[in-house]
Structures are given as structure tokens and as C-alpha cells.
Amino acid sequence: MNQSVIEISKLNKIYEGGFRALDDVNLNINQGEIFALLGPNGAGKTTLISIICGINRFEHGEIKVGGFDIKKDYRKARSQIGLVPQELTRDAFETVWNTVSFSRGLFGKKRDDAKIEKILKDLSLWEKKDNKLMTLSGGMKRRVMIAKALSHEPQILFLDEPTAGVDVELRKSMWNQVRQLRESGVTIILTTHYIEEAEEMADRIGIINQGKIIHTDRKSELMSRLGQKELTITLENTLETLPSFLAPYKDLLKIEGENLVYKFDSNNSDHSIENILKLIHQNNLGYVDLNTKQSSLEEIFVNLVSAS
Amino acid sequence: MNLRGVLSIYIFEMSRMKRTLGQSVASPVISTALYFVVFGSAIGSKINSIDGISYGSFIVPGLIMMSVLTQSISNSSFAIFFPRFTGSIYEILSAPISHLEVVLGYVGAATSKALIIGLIILATANCFVDVQIQYPFLMILFLFLTSLSFCLFGFIIGIWADNFEKLQIIPLLIITPLAFLGGTFYSINMLPPVWRTISLFNPVVYLISAFRYSFYGKSDVNIGISLGMIGLILLICVIIIYFIFRTGYKLKP
User: Fold this and answer.
1) A155 and A25: one domain?
2) Is ipTM > 0.85 here?
């Protein structure tokens, strides 16, 4: 059984004015995993992260980080966390070296120039160490934020929209860095608008909407359990209506020009490709091509959010 | 206690002073030196001594105090306002550091800066007029307590302010007039009885009076009352800051 590093139970957050940002959230994050938290704008992703990190207050519920209550044992809880916020916040006049060193000291860690040097080199920032932050590009600034979060060697890293506004090349390079961090034992919690990012990297996925966690599952489970498969059969001759021998499948079949599109649940044995192809073959319905496709995480996400 | 965290904030803030040496040190020193030239040497030579002290020497404690008050407020208010303004406050709020330690780091650095500026102005004054310090320990104590109190006050302003205008409004519209009317350039005993009584409602009167006492052994107000007033300002600021952190006012939504 996986050990939880973050345990959230019955967490509620109501902002002044009565807006309920989090509604009875229960969530466990396992040690060493990459957990992607997905949700539309205003779903409560950043509020949840901010509360765990100590930036926002909360009145009801309990949160433990590494077994430590974030209110009673806030020092022990926070010392395990590194945060890369969504906004590119920075002290524009500071150098890269100074701002990263400051972050390490703030977390009570002894000065360690070799450690800071390694972090900056790993993030391709070493050449820029004496540059002021205001002179860096957007992508470089984003890396500095990551370097600051890693400076105190956290066991848990929160990445709130880490690749927002970052070009494709840099985004892929960041994904590699995140994977390397996970291999070194760091637990990573990621929020993103890029579903592709979650699909590419996450071990487990949580979907949040209107302050509620509506689904959590391993990515592979989620995709096989909630995902649909699609078989496109390109026929020799275009059909006007569905042949009677296909009537048992009428709810799953659609005629699209010369194609017969069959959407089915791969977990349902009655819906197997074999059965429908056998029927087509027995009834001499000619076809020239077959193509199968599995629904993407994005489609699953959209379905879950719209159903909630 | 996270001493390294406190030290990191302290060093970070002090390095800002080094980076902006002209604005942090040269500016208050030059403006105070101009006061000495105009009021101390030029006009001061035409004014009779006050309580047996030459006018040029008389205004030294008041001018130091005026600079220390304004510098204390501006340094500490800017120190906490700037990370709020840029958003980098997230790092302070998410660090394993207590509220007291955050205040120690920011207010400690701002107090150090104010003390350094006060001592530089004292050295500058010595170049223009004859300055004697009868009670050096008391002088350092008053300078420290005043800097600390007004740095805490500045910290409150830095959290309260939503924009740069609000950041400036209290130092410009309240503190500077109070400092001018608090006996920097005159003894309140020289005022008509009504105005003297009104002046006693100005807290800066007590600060300048006590500070001047440490120089020349003469004061407008009893030294014990002055010390009590500084203590009261300090206490009020500490209580307000305690409630700011307890409620998360303008820091934690």
C-alpha cells in the first residue's frame, strides 16, 4: 500500500463574501508520485495548493503533510514543501544567485553554495547566476521560480501551472526535469490547463470542479475505465440506413459518409470489436479499412466536468 | 526558532540598503545637513540660545529624531509592501518561519538602517555645530526604542497600504507635520500656554524631548513620562501586528 505524504480531510474554504472555494475536499497524495490536479478556471486548484502551503487560511478540515498537521506543526510540515506559484513573482532587482540563496535560508537551511550551483546547473541557469531577474526571459524566470522552490531540498513539490506561457521546447525540457525529480524521490503535485501535460506525466489524476474533488484515479485506470474506444470501418459502398443485422448495435453506431463509426466501452464484453466484425463478415458487408482510437484524457475530463 | 530564516530576511533587506545607498543614506544626510546650514549656521547665529544651549546645537537631537522617524517608517513599510506588491510574499508565508520571526527580520533590518542613518546624521551635525552627549547610554536607548517603535508602525502601514499613494500618505501628512510641530526647532516651553497644552497631545514631543535630554540634560517633558510614551507607542504597534498576523489581515486571504 502506498504511503500518503499529504492527507486532506473534510477541507472547506469560504472566502469573505460567501464564495465557497472548496467544498468538503478529501484527498490523499502518495509518496513519490506525480499527481495532476485538473479543473477548469476557478475550480479551486490554486486555493487548495495555497492552503496546503500556508498562504491561504482555512477554517474547517484537517491537512497533514508528512504526518504533520499544517497548523499545529507548521514548521515541520512546511519545511518539506517547495512551491512554484502560478504567477511569475520576483524581486526584479535581485540576482539569480541571491534570490535562490535567500529562499534556502528562509527555510532554515545552512548555506550550501555547491547545492545551489547544482540546482542552477540542472536548470540551465548557471550562466545567468549573476544576472538580475528583470533581464531574464519568461522561460528563464519560470526556471528561477523552480530553482527557488528546490533550494531547500523539499520532499514535496507543488507546481501550479508550471508551463503556462512557456514554449513547446522548454515545456518538454521541464517535463524531463520533473521526471528526474520524481526519480530522486520527490512527490510532485501539478496543476495544469494542458491536459496533454497531465496525460504525459501524471501517475494519478484528480479532477476538481466547483470546489469539489469529483474524481481521483490512476491515469491508466481512469483512461481505461472512463475512456471510450472508437472503431471506424471504411465501407466499400456508402450506406443510406443501418442494415437490420446491426440493429442490436444501433445506439453505438453512426453512419458518417462512407464510414461506419462504432463507439464502445472496451470493458463491456458484449461490445467487443470481434462480435461486430463477425456480424459484418457473416452478412457480406464489404469494408476496405479499419481504424481504432481511444478517447483522450481531455475528452474524459470534459465529460466528467460537464456531468458534475 | 528559525534563526537562519530571520537572518536571511535581515541580510536580504540590508543588501537593499547597500544597493540603494544614495536613496537610503545620502538623501537623508544631505537634507539634514542643509537644515544645519540654514537653521543652525545662517539663521541660528541670529537666534538666542535656548535653555543655555546654542540654537545650532539645540536643533541637533530634533533633526536626528525627525530623520529617524521618517526613515524608520519608510524603510519598514516599503520592506513589507514591496513583496506584497510583487507577489513574492508567498515565499514568506509558505516558509517554516513564525510571525514573530518575520517581524524580527523585516523590522530588525529597518531598525538597523534607521540607527545607522541617525548615527551618520549625528556625525554630520558634529561637523557643523558643537554637540555634547551627557548620557550616551540613554541616547542610544531612546534612539533604539524610537526606531523600533516607528519601524513597527511602518510595518503596519506597509501591510495596510494597497498602493504607493497610501504608503506615502501617513509619513507625509501626519508624521512630518508632527515632527515639525514636536519641538524640533523650538522648545514647547516657548509657546503660549494653550499651544503648549495642545502640543502635549503630539507624541513626537515626548520623543524629541527625551532625546534632547540625553544630549544636554534639559527636557520639555519629564523623562519618565517620555519613556512611558515610547513604551505605549511600542505596545500599541505590537498589539496591532499581533492581530494582523492572527487574522491574516491583507496577508492571507
Assistant:
1) yes
2) no
